[in-house]
UniProtKB/TrEMBL annotation:
This is VOC family protein.
Length: 118
């Protein structure tokens, strides 16, 4: 089973560029009705044209290790809310940034082994 999370945006091209160029997503499907679905590993996120952007929620990108978190931080530093840090409550290393709509983007890695996602 696969799921997709959709968000409304009033700047779809800019959003698609942000996620593909800075976070390594690929365009998975372009829909004629004004939606672009992006994929990074097993995460599918869709952005659809609307004059009222949805900015609630967090798009979380889970990467393999701390070095990958640091690498993405380098790409997102101008939009980051702060540098990467350890979150002991959840046993992760993470940082948050804002996409062009102002939606929160989290980049994280688990500090200990986690079960595989299917």
């Amino acid at each position: 089973m696969t799921g997709i999370v959709f968000f409304r945006t009033d700047q779809r091209r800019r959003i698609v560029e942000f996620y593909t160029e800075r976070l390594g997503f690929e365009e998975w499907l372009e829909q004629d009705g004004g939606c672009t679905i992006l994929q990074r590993d097993n995460l599918l996120v869709g952005f659809c044209d609307d004059d009222r952007p949805e900015t609630e929620g967090v798009v979380t990108v889970v990467v393999e290790d701390r070095a990958a978190v640091e690498e993405l931080y380098g790409s997102l530093e101008p939009r980051a809310r702060g540098p990467p840090e350890t979150n002991a409550d959840f046993d992760i290393y993470q940082f948050f940034a804002d996409d062009p709509d102002g939606r929160a983007v989290e980049v994280q890695t688990f500090l200990h082994e986690t079960p595989p996602v299917s």
